[in-house]
């Protein structure tokens, strides 16, 4: 047992010696030997243990200091690694910020803050842009054919000359589209200037829409002010119509309209009504693969409408604040109903009613992906719930059909923006 104690003591002595030696080297000093007198009758091991306490404290302090230094070194290394990683990412971001739109698309859809997509609904790829341009050109051609028929029936020399001029402009646009197709097929050398080219094409299209609209104005004298339709030929964030008057506070309502669209996915937003502090006070929207929905104060009800078949359909939605009861009618037939849609919340006044776009802010914040594509006509609003018979009269274009007492469909009640066009509404004539 005593031999064991002596062994332990010698180990402590050696450890103390080595520690002091290493400590002196760490701090730049020289090795020192500490000699302590021990009484003759005292146990050497006990004396060693007793006198080792200050050394143990020093050892603990030094070890803590060394641990702190090691931790700081590790922290510095981690920070250096983080700095290198952030520097690398910053370099990549700087290189991409100077890249062309075509390069940014390689990483997926990128929509920078503050920018507006004015020509596409989902993708900004060249193929999608060309498809949309083709659709626009087809729409313009259709309108010119209608003008040609009108000019033939009315022997209008001025209409003929304008038609020829516009036809020439459309031919030039088609050449531009064909040129872009060729450039894509030859390795996409022309895509570097895509933004500039797109701007020129948009400007030309806007000018064409305006000139055709001016030409169509000559027909307004030959039709009543309510016998017209609005046409939104493609998804943009600049084609819309604004109702000149606001809506009053309403505790019940009926909204009816004629729609024609074959847009996919979703026909978009036929109308949206926003008030200060609430952009979704009253909205009708069919976005993406979702069914058509009506929103009141951000509360949602899914509607059983199927209308994107390229044919005219008459739809009506009624609602009362009492229990939030709603009903949906398509082509004069009730298709669905429900309750608890914004119950006891009246529709607020002093807002903005927009046709063709969904408002993210009061009167703005339009998103091309939510824009309405197609034709819209006979949009009416009442501050009461219409009866089944009244809705049927509207859907069948009966002479007994009423007009909205809150908003009635009149050309003089709308301001048109972005080239959305007006044309004679034919659906009721076909029914009668």
TrEMBL record:
Its cofactor is Ca(2+). Residues 226-428 form the Pentraxin (PTX) domain. SUPFAM superfamilies: Concanavalin A-like lectins/glucanases. It comes from the Eukaryota. This is Neuronal pentraxin 1 like. Keywords: Calcium, Coiled coil, Disulfide bond, Glycoprotein, Metal-binding, Signal. The keyword Signal applies. PROSITE patterns: PTX_1 (PS00289), PTX_2 (PS51828). One of its GO terms (molecular function) is metal ion binding. Pfam families: Pentaxin. InterPro entries: ConA-like_dom_sf, Neuronal_Pentraxin_Related, Pentaxin_CS, PTX_dom.
């Amino acid at each position: 047992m005593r031999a064991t104690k002596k062994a332990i003591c010698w180990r402590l002595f050696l450890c103390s010696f080595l520690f002091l030696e290493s400590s002196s080297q760490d701090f730049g000093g020289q090795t020192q030997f500490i000699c302590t007198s021990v009484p003759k009758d005292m146990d050497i091991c006990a004396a060693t243990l007793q006198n080792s306490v200050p050394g143990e404290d020093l050892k603990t302090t030094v070890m803590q200091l060394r641990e702190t230094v090691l931790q700081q070194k590790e922290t510095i290394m981690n920070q250096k690694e983080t700095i290198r990683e952030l520097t690398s990412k910053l370099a990549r971001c700087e290189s991409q910020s100077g890249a062309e739109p075509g390069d940014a698309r390689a990483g997926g859809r990128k929509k920078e803050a503050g920018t507006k997509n004015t020509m596409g609904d989902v993708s900004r790829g060249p193929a999608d842009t060309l498809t949309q341009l083709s659709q626009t050109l087809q729409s313009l051609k259709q309108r010119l054919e209608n003008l040609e028929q009108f000019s033939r029936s009315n022997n209008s020399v001025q209409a003929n000359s304008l038609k020829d001029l516009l036809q020439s402009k459309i031919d030039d646009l088609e050449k531009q589209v064909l040129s872009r197709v060729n450039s894509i097929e030859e390795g996409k050398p022309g895509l570097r200037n895509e933004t500039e080219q797109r701007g020129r094409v948009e400007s030309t299209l806007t000018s064409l829409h305006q000139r055709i609209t001016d030409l169509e104005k000559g027909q307004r004298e030959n039709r009543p002010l309510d016998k017209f339709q609005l046409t939104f030929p493609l998804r943009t964030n600049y084609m819309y119509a604004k109702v000149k008057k606001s809506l009053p506070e309403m505790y019940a309502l009926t909204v009816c309209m004629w729609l024609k669209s074959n847009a996919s996915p979703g026909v978009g937003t036929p109308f949206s009504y926003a008030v200060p502090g609430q952009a979704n006070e009253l909205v009708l929207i069919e976005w993406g693969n979702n069914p058509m929905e009506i929103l009141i104060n951000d509360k949602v009800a899914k509607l059983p409408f199927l209308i994107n078949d390229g044919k005219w359909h008459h739809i009506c939605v009624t609602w009362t604040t009492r229990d939030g009861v709603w009903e949906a009618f398509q082509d004069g037939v009730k298709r669905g109903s429900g309750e608890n849609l914004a119950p006891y919340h009246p529709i607020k006044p002093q807002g903005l009613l927009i046709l063709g776009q969904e408002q993210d802010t009061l009167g703005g914040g339009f998103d091309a992906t939510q824009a309405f594509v197609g034709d819209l006509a006979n949009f009416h609003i009442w501050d009461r719930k219409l009866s089944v018979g009244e809705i049927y009269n509207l859907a069948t274009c009966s002479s007994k059909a009423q007009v909205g007492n809150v908003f009635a469909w009149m050309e003089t009640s709308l301001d048109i923006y972005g080239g959305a066009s007006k044309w004679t509404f034919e659906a009721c004539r076909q029914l009668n």
